[in-house]
Amino acid sequence: xxxxxxxxxxxxxxxxxxxxxxxxxLEERKGGAIEEGMLKAxxxxxxxxxxxxxxxxxxxxxxxxTPKHSGGQIQHSHDxxxxxxxxxxxxxxxxxxxxxxxxxxxxxxRKIAVAFVVKKRTVMTNGWIAGLLNMGAPSRVSxxxxxxxxxxxxxAHVKRLQMSKSKD
Length: 168
Hints:
Layout: H1 11-29, H2 36-44, H3 51-58, H4 61-64, H5 73-93, H6 98-101, H7 109-121, H8 126-133, H9 138-148, H10 152-167
């Protein structure tokens, strides 16, 4: 099946799929009415299909190895789960609680280390990271992560996080 269109994965099915996409593009250019939900899906991601279909795609090695900047809903969904896992394991490795994130200074070296790892391994935005780690404005995350490799205190925490990941 071609995801979202109930067409068989055959030459004729792929042709009908392509024709349907071309028709939708034509309607959009003419200002025709296309369901808003479908437009959002077209603009944000490359996958049409159910959540079950997305989950099956995520299990495929070729999707898991997708480059960081590939975009799309599937990558974002997968990376959000991975980012949450990295934050939880980071907090555990650094012996921090979620409550401490709200007490510690925005530029605490441990917060920066966790943010640095999340930024390196996922496509999560600075705003998302800043919100979860209580780091203030999203631009701070960018600045802190840029400075991270030059700071010995942050590098030591990053190394600790990497060591704890290898034990998992």
